[in-house]
Design a protein that fits this description.
Blueprint: E1 3-11, E2 22-31, E3 36-43, H1 52-58, H2 62-66, H3 71-78, E4 86-89, H4 92-105, E5 115-117, H5 118-125, H6 134-140, H7 151-171, H8 174-183, H9 192-204, E6 212-215, E7 218-221, H10 237-246, H11 262-277, E8 281-285, H12 291-306, E9 310-314, H13 317-331, E10 341-343, H14 353-360, H15 368-380, H16 398-405, H17 423-432, E11 436-440, H18 441-449, E12 460-463, H19 469-476, E13 479-482, H20 483-495, H21 509-542, E14 548-550, E15 556-560, H22 566-603, H23 608-633, E16 641-647, E17 656-662, H24 666-674, E18 679-684, H25 694-700, E19 709-713, H26 719-722, E20 723-728, H27 738-756, E21 760-763, H28 767-780, E22 787-790, H29 798-807, E23 811-815, E24 832-835, H30 846-857, H31 862-879, E25 890-894, H32 898-901, H33 905-910, E26 917-920, H34 922-932
Parallel strand pairs: 1-4, 4-5, 8-18, 8-19, 9-11, 9-12, 10-11, 12-18, 20-25, 20-26, 21-23, 21-24, 22-23, 24-25
Antiparallel strand pairs: 1-2, 2-3, 6-7, 13-17, 14-15, 15-16, 16-17
Length: 933
C-alpha cells in the first residue's frame, strides 16, 4: 500500500534563496486508505525577525518562536517521516525547496522521493474551481479548516484533499485515464503508478460508465437530446399575471422576503404588450424594481404561447449567470412546463472535439502548461454540458492552446467529409429548440452586422443594460487592431508551417518549398509590422500640436484627420502596404499547400488531412480579415468614420492600438435591428435624461418609430432616507489651479474616509488625476490605517480590485470609467461614493471631439445634444453604485460645484430620485456625514 508524507511549512517569506527560513512545520503520514500513521508538528526558531505581514497571516509572533528549537534540533525526528513515501504538499516546489534547503544546511541528503502537488492535482481533477487556494478548496468541499496558515492544520487539510482527489481520479472513465497516461510525463507530480492502477481496475473490475459516451476517441459527458418545446395552452395573460404576483402559489410562495412591487407588475405588462403588438419599447427601471424577473416572465409566456423564441441580450457575463442560475429557476415555477433557456456564445467559446483529439495525438512535443491544459480539459469533458471555455480555469498559456481547439477551427471540416458534431453544433441545436436564448451585446451586434447570422433566427429581442448598446455597436461597426494581437496571429500562423506536421505523407518537393517560403513570409511580416508600429509609436510620441488626449486607462491618443499630418498618414499607409504584401504572400503559400493537401486527401483517407485543411482555411480567413481591416483603416475617403491611434506612454516602443468607429451608429441600428425585428425592448436603470427618452432614441436609431412604448418605472427604495448628496463649496478652481484641486481632493478623501472608516469608492473622469491623487494619498496615509487601491496602478483586473477592496475593513478604491457602472458593492462594504468631476467625456477624446465638430457644422448645439445627456446617463450609473438594496445607506460626495452653480446642473439633479442636497464647506459636510452615519 502506498504511503504519503504530507507536509506544510510556514516561513518568513517566499524565497529560501534570499535567506527566508521556516518558522513552523507540520507533517501528516498517511496510508493510501486514509489511515493516519503519524503526525508531527513544531514551531522552529528562524534566527531572524518575522515580518509583519507573515505575523498577521499566521498569527505567529516573534515571542512564540523565541524558545522554539532550531531546525537542526528536530531534523532527526523529521527526516525519517519521509522514508519510502510520496511527498505531498499544496504547491510542492515551495515546501520541498525550503525543506531540502534546511536538510542540506544540517548535513543531510536532499529528498528525491516521488512527489504529488495537490495544487496541480486539484487543477486537473477540479478544472472548474474558481480558485485553487487551500482554504477556499477546503471551504468548497466542506472539509472544515479551523486554523488556516498554521502548518499542521494545513497539512491535515491537504491530506483530506489528497484523498478526495484520488477518489475523483478513480471515478474517471477508462479512456480519460488512458489519455492522461500519455501526458503524465510532462507534469510535475508522479501520477503514473496511480493512473496504471486505476486503469487496471477499470479493465478488470465492474466498469460502470453509463454517464459518458465516446466522441472522436474522447470520453465526454452524455448529451441529453433536446426535444422541441411544446406550445401549451396558457390562461389569459392578465389573469395569470395576477396569480403570479398576488396569488398564494405565486412568487410570494417561493421568496421568503417577497414584497408586491407595483413597478415590477407594470414592467411585466409593458414587455408583454410590446411583444404581443410587435412594437419596440424603451423601459427604464430603477434599482430594486426586479426588472429581470419582470421581463423573463413576459418573454417566457410569449415564447410558450407562440412557439417562437425570444433572444435576451446583456452586456455583462455576471448578469447572464444571474439570469440562468438564479432568476429563471424562480420564474419557471410559474409555468406548467420548464423554461428551455440556453446561453449562446460565439464559436470561439466552444471546444471542437475533433481538433482536441488531433492535439492529444501529438502530446510528445508539449511543454508543461500545454500538458496541464490538456489534462484539465480531458477531465472537464467528462462533466461539462456546454463545452464553453468560460467554465474552466485554464493556466496562463492555456488560452493560446484553446485557439487551436476551439470550434472556430472547424468551420470548414464539414466540406471535407468530417463532421465535427460536438459542442458548438449541440449549442446550435439547443438554441433552435429554446424558449429563451441568452447572449451578449457583442454577439448581437455581430449578428446584425454580418451577412451570415451569428444567432439562430429570432423576431423578438430584449436588450438589458441597453445604455451600452451604442458603444458596443460602434466597436463592431468599426476597426480595432493592436500590435500584440497581430503578433499573436503571426506566431499562430507559423505553426501550420512546421515540417513535422506532414512527415507521415510523401508530399512533393514543391510542398516543402511553400512551407519554407511561408515561414519566411511570416518572419518578414513580423519585421514589417514592427517597423510600422515603431514608426506610429514615435510619431504619436513626438506629436505636440493637435488632437492628443488620454484614454481612460492612460494611453496617449492621437486623432487622425484627413488633410492634417499628410506626411505621417502617407508614410504609415505605405508601411502598412508593405506589411500587407507579406500577408498576401502568406495567403498564396497557404493556398498552394491547400491544393496539394486536397490532392493527398483524394488518394488516401487520413483524418489529419481535413484537420490541417480546416486550419489552413481558417488562417487564410484571418489573413483576409487583417488585410481588409487595415486597408479600410488607412482609407481616408470615408467621411462617416472617426480614426485614432493609442500608444502605451510607458509601454514597449511598438505597443500601438488602431481604432476606427462610425460617427453615428443610429442609422446602422435603425436599418439592421429596429427595421428588421418585430419587437426590440430596451431596458436599463439609466436610459432617460431629465425625464425624457429623446437622447436614447436619437443615439440608437429609434426616433422614427412612433409606436415605441415608453415607461419610466421608479425605484421602490426610499432614497430620501437612504442617501445624502453633498457638494463642497470651497474647492479650488480646477482650471486655474489644478494642483491645488488635487491637494484639496486628497485631503477630502482622507477626511471623509476617517468618518466613514474607509469603505469609499472614488470615481474619476481623468486617469491622469487618478494617478496624481493616488501618489499624494500614499504619501500621507498609513497602510495600517487605510488600504488604497487604484485602477491601472494597483495590479489586477476590475474584479480583483473590487475583491481586494472588500477584503479589507478600511479601504479606499479609486477607479476610472469602467467603475462608473456594473460594479456591485452591496451593504456595509460601501458607505461613501465620491465623484471627482461630473462625467463629461474629455473634449480631447477622439470620438467626442469629432462628434462635436460635426454637430457644430450641422448648426446643432453639440453640448446639449450629445455631451450633456451622455454625461447625465454616466452620472446616474455612478450614483447607482451606492444603493443596491433597501437597507443600504450612504453619502454621495461630488467635488464639482458646477452641479449647483452651472445652468445645466439642474438637469443632473432632476435625473436622480429625490434626495437631500447639501452645499456647504468641506468641514461642515464632514461633520454632517459623521452625525448622519
Amino acid at each position: 500500500m502506498k504511503r504519503f508524507a504530507i507536509v506544510d511549512l510556514e516561513t518568513t517569506g517566499n524565497a529560501a534563496s534570499k535567506g527566508d527560513r521556516i518558522i513552523e512545520i507540520g507533517v501528516v503520514v498517511m496510508e493510501e486508505n486514509g489511515t493516519i500513521v503519524e503526525e508531527f508538528s513544531s514551531l522552529v526558531y528562524p534566527e531572524k525577525e518575522i515580518p509583519p505581514f507573515i505575523r498577521s497571516l499566521t498569527g505567529i509572533e516573534n515571542d512564540d518562536v523565541l524558545d522554539a528549537p532550531l531546525f537542526s534540533e528536530i531534523v532527526g525526528d523529521v527526516y525519517p517521516l519521509f522514508q519510502h513515501a510520496y511527498i505531498v504538499a499544496h504547491n510542492i516546489e515551495f515546501d520541498l525547496g525550503f525543506l531540502n534547503d534546511e536538510l542540506v544546511r544540517c548535513g543531510y541528503q536532499p529528498l528525491h522521493n516521488p512527489i504529488i502537488d495537490t495544487v496541480e492535482f486539484a487543477r486537473i481533477l477540479m478544472p472548474t474551481s474558481p480558485t485553487f487556494k487551500l482554504g477556499q478548496l477546503a471551504e468548497r468541499l466542506e472539509m472544515g479548516h479551523d486554523r488556516p496558515h498554521r502548518a499542521l492544520s494545513d497539512a491535515q487539510v491537504t491530506a483530506d484533499l489528497l484523498l478526495y482527489l484520488l477518489k475523483e481520479l478513480q471515478r474517471l472513465p477508462e479512456r480519460t485515464i488512458q489519455h492522461l497516461l500519455k501526458i503524465e510525463g510532462k507534469l510535475k507530480s508522479d501520477f503514473r503508478e496511480f493512473f496504471l492502477k486505476y486503469l487496471e481496475e477499470k479493465r478488470y473490475g465492474s466498469n460502470n460508465e453509463s454517464d459518458v459516451m465516446l466522441k472522436h476517441g474522447i470520453a465526454v459527458r452524455k448529451q441529453v437530446p433536446d426535444r422541441a418545446p411544446k406550445t401549451i395552452q396558457l390562461p389569459p395573460f392578465n389573469t395569470w399575471k395576477t396569480q403570479v404576483f398576488e396569488g398564494e402559489n405565486g412568487l410570494g410562495s417561493l421568496l421568503p422576503d417577497y414584497e408586491i412591487r407595483k413597478g415590477q407588475q407594470d414592467m411585466t405588462a409593458s414587455v408583454k404588450q410590446a411583444l404581443e403588438e410587435n412594437n419596440h419599447a424603451i423601459l427604464e427601471a430603477g434599482a430594486g424594481t426586479g426588472k429581470s424577473v419582470a421581463y423573463l416572465l413576459s418573454a417566457a409566456f410569449q415564447a410558450m404561447e407562440s412557439g417562437k423564441r425570444v433572444v435576451i441580450s446583456t452586456h455583462t457575463t455576471s448578469l447572464q449567470k444571474q439570469l440562468l442560475e438564479e432568476e429563471i429557476p424562480k420564474v419557471e415555477r410559474m409555468f406548467p412546463r420548464p423554461i428551455k433557456a440556453v446561453l449562446y456564445k460565439g464559436k470561439s467559446h466552444y471546444i471542437s472535439l475533433i481538433h482536441f483529439h488531433y492535439e492529444l495525438e501529438r502530446s510528445y512535443q508539449d511543454n508543461y502548461d500545454i500538458a496541464l491544459t490538456k489534462a484539465m480539459i480531458l477531465v472537464w469533458l467528462t462533466i461539462t454540458r456546454t463545452g464553453d471555455v468560460d467554465e474552466i480555469q485554464l493556466p496562463s498559456n492555456g488560452r493560446q492552446f484553446w485557439h487551436k481547439v476551439s470550434s472556430e477551427q472547424s468551420s470548414k471540416t464539414v466540406r471535407l467529409g468530417i463532421t465535427d458534431d460536438s459542442f458548438f453544433q449541440w449549442a446550435q441545436e439547443k438554441a433552435a429548440q429554446a424558449d429563451l436564448v441568452i447572449t451578449n451585446h457583442a454577439l448581437l451586434c455581430m449578428d446584425i452586422m454580418k451577412e451570415e447570422s451569428a444567432l439562430p433566427d429570432y423576431e423578438h429581442v430584449i436588450i438589458d443594460e441597453a445604455h451600452h448598446l451604442e458603444a458596443v455597436a460602434s466597436r463592431y461597426f468599426g476597426v480595432r487592431m493592436n500590435y500584440r494581437e497581430l503578433q499573436r496571429h503571426l506566431t499562430q500562423f507559423g505553426e501550420i508551417f512546421h515540417k513535422s506536421l506532414y512527415k507521415e505523407w510523401s508530399l512533393q518537393e514543391d510542398f516543402y518549398m511553400n512551407l519554407m517560403r511561408g515561414q519566411q513570409s511570416i518572419d518578414e511580416a513580423k519585421e514589417e509590422l514592427s517597423h510600422l508600429s515603431r514608426y506610429i509609436y514615435q510619431s504619436v510620441k513626438k506629436q505636440k500640436r493637435f488632437g492628443k488626449g488620454k484614454s481612460d486607462v492612460g494611453r496617449t491618443q492621437l486623432l487622425l484627420k484627413p488633410g492634417e499630418m499628410p506626411a505621417f498618414i502617407d508614410t504609415a499607409k505605405e508601411m502598412s502596404h508593405r506589411f500587407l504584401a507579406m500577408i498576401k504572400k502568406l495567403i498564396v503559400h497557404m493556398g498552394r499547400m491547400e491544393e496539394q493537401l486536397r490532392m493527398q486527401l483524394a488518394v488516401r483517407e487520413d483524418y489529419s488531412i481535413p484537420i490541417l485543411l480546416s486550419r489552413l482555411n481558417n488562417q487564410m480567413d484571418v489573413c483576409q480579415q487583417i488585410r481588409s481591416q487595415l486597408i479600410h483603416y488607412f482609407d481616408f475617403t470615408r467621411e462617416e468614420e472617426v480614426k485614432w491611434v493609442e500608444i502605451e506612454g510607458e509601454g514597449a516602443v511598438n505597443a500601438i492600438y488602431l481604432f476606427s468607429e462610425p460617427y453615428d451608429v443610429a442609422h446602422l441600428l435603425e436599418q439592421r435591428l429596429f427595421s428588421r425585428k418585430r419587437s426590440a425592448i430596451l431596458t436599463s436603470a439609466t436610459l432617460s435624461t431629465d425625464g425624457s427618452f429623446e437622447y436614447i432614441r436619437k443615439s440608437l436609431g429609434l426616433k422614427d418609430f412612433a409606436n415605441t412604448i415608453e415607461a419610466v418605472i421608479p425605484s421602490p427604495y426610499q432614497f430620501k432616507e437612504q442617501v445624502q448628496l453633498m457638494v463642497p463649496n470651497d474647492f479650488p478652481n480646477i482650471k486655474n489651479d489644478p494642483d491645488s484641486f488635487v491637494e484639496a481632493l486628497s485631503e477630502a478623501i482622507y477626511s471623509v474616509a476617517e468618518v466613514t472608516k474607509g469603505r469609499m469608492l472614488v470615481l474619476f473622469t481623468s486617469y491622469e488625476m487618478l494617478r496624481q491623487t493616488y501618489t499624494l494619498l500614499k504619501e500621507f496615509i498609513d497602510p495600517e490605517e487605510f488600504m488604497v487601491f487604484a485602477q491601472g496602478v494597483s495590479s489586477g483586473s476590475r474584479d480583483r480590485l473590487k475583491k481586494n477592496f472588500q477584503a479589507f475593513d478600511q479601504a479606499i478604491l479609486l477607479g476610472t470609467s469602467s467603475f462608473w457602472e456594473g460594479v456591485d458593492i452591496p451593504g456595509e462594504d460601501l458607505s461613501c461614493l465620491m465623484m471627482v468631476r461630473l462625467p463629461f467625456q474629455p473634449p480631447d477624446q477622439p470620438i467626442q471631439s469629432m462628434r462635436n465638430e460635426r454637430l457644430q457644422k450641422e448648426g446643432k448645439n453639440s453640448f446639449m445634444e450629445k455631451s450633456l445627456p451622455h454625461a447625465i446617463i454616466r452620472f446616474k450609473q455612478g450614483f447607482g453604485r451606492l444603493i443596491r438594496s433597501s437597507s443600504d445607506r450612504g453619502v454621495v460626495f461630488i467635488c464639482d460645484q458646477r452641479l449647483i452653480e452651472a445652468r445645466y446642473g439642474k438637469y443632473f439633479l432632476n435625473s436622480l430620485p429625490e434626495v437631500p442636497v447639501s452645499y456647504e464647506s468641506t468641514r461642515q459636510l464632514i461633520n454632517k456625514i459623521e452625525k448622519w452615519l
